[in-house]
Amino acid sequence: MSTSTMAALETAPIDWLGRADAVCAQLADNAARHDAEDAFVSDNYARLKAEGFFSAHVPVELGGGGADYAELATVIRRLGAACGSTALAYSMHSHLVAAALWRWRHQNAPTDGLLKRVAAENLVLISSGGSDWLNSAGAAVKVEGGFHITARKIFSSGCLAGDLLMTSAVHDDPDAGPTVLHFGVPLTAEGVLIHETWRVMGMRGTGSHDVELNAVFVPDAAIAGRRPQGKWHPLFHIISLIAFPLIYAAYVGVAESARDKALEVARRRPADEGLVQRVGEMQNAFAAAETSHQRMIRLAEIAMPGAETTSEVMIGRTLVGEAAIRTTELALEVAGGGAFHRAMGIERAFRDVQGARFHPLQQKAQLRYTGRLALGLDIDG
User: Fold this and answer.
1) Which of 58, 281, 360, 371 is the most buried (most CB within 10 A)?
2) What does pTM read for this prediction?
């Protein structure tokens, strides 16, 4: 083989969708067991890690796999069809990588160091953003050289396999008032403790346990950002734009799997008019989820973050969630009584998809935000 041919092979883009398809059978085989045991999807995470998925979205020039944003979203959707818990937990890592990459590319932010570490060390990042959001939680007390952080972070998906907790806490700044500090904490740091609290209705395998920080020292140099507590900040418009299309890709995958299983059953039955109509309704619901989700992805690819873009993305978040839930409800009806059995997998999908209700901005908060913006009112009001 010539040197030029070898170089071409070395630089050929990775087929991440093909790689996802190759692991999905194993992920699906493990999904029911993890669900039944309330156990974190540790073996599925190990497979993803071995296949390089945790650095897939890191650019090639920074040592990663070079997957683009839409490709990453499609990977998560395909994983979601195989195992909702694996896909949702993986999306939490992925959106942190994607946000860091967006800031590096568009703001010249010094996040390339984190991206290089993710690629070189195969790091797994853990998010606490779903429980923190604008207000954050926990106390950051100033000490010499940094801060002592005391907090309990819930919904820390994947924390049993995590390396860095990307989180925040509130510092009572004597000049600026309550100020949210953003930073990363190694999960092996002194004072970090995981409480295995995750016993829930759906998405049981995400391992979204509580992480306690007990006077954990964070040096001044590790503070990545500061913002006023409880106010919309440019950082959160970036998070809204970049994170939610990836998170909701998992739910589209779950709904797609339920639909496909229901169609397999329905095609073996006499096509009476009632069944035909329910199948049509299910198809409509899934098309609504898919179409709204594609718009979210497109916004993440081309839009700039800001109040208007956040409204558009959060409208998508509500529409995708509602349509994914409705798809799965209809899948139960289409498949009939057999869907009540766990072995079919629709029952688990029905439970898993309910998680789409609970990520920020939840429906009522989204309606309020969008309504206030449309009326020209202060979004922080």
Assistant:
1) 58
2) 0.95
* Cβ neighbour number for residue 345 with a 10 Å cutoff: 20
What is the structure's pLDDT at 271? 84
Q: Is 97 helix (H, G, I), strand (E, B) or coil?
A: helix
72 confidence band (pLDDT: 50, 70, 90): very high
3-state secondary structure of 218: strand
Q: Which CATH number fits domain 127-228: 3.20.20.70, 3.40.640.10, 2.40.110.10, 3.10.290.10?
A: 2.40.110.10
Rounded-to-integer distance, Cα 297 and Cα 261, Å: 26
pLDDT band at 11 (very low <50, low <70, confident <90, very high): low
CATH of 234-374, one of 1.10.20.10, 1.20.140.10, 3.90.850.10, 3.40.50.720: 1.20.140.10
Name the β-bridge partners of 302.
Answer: none
Sign of CA dihedral 198, 203, 204, 206: negative
Please, are residues 331 and 353 in contact by the beta-carbon 8 Å criterion? no
How many Å apart are CA 349 and CA 185, to the nearest integer? 33
What is the 8-class DSSP label of residue 85? H
CB atoms within 10 A of CB 105: 12
Residue spans of the domains in the chain: they are: 10-123, 127-228, 234-374
Q: Where on the phi/psi map is residue 260: left (φ > 0), alpha (ψ -120 to 50), or beta?
A: alpha
Share of the chain above pLDDT 90, in %: 95
- Residue 275, judged by CB atoms within 10 A of its CB (0-12, 13-18, 19+), counts as middle
Contacts with 377 (C-beta within 8 Å, 6 or more apart), sequence order: none
Q: What are phi and psi of 127, to 5 degrees?
A: -105, 140
Please report, for residues 112, 124, 154, 185, 214, the alpha-carbon distance to residue 189 in angstroms, rounded to integers and kept in the order given. Answer: 23, 15, 18, 7, 10
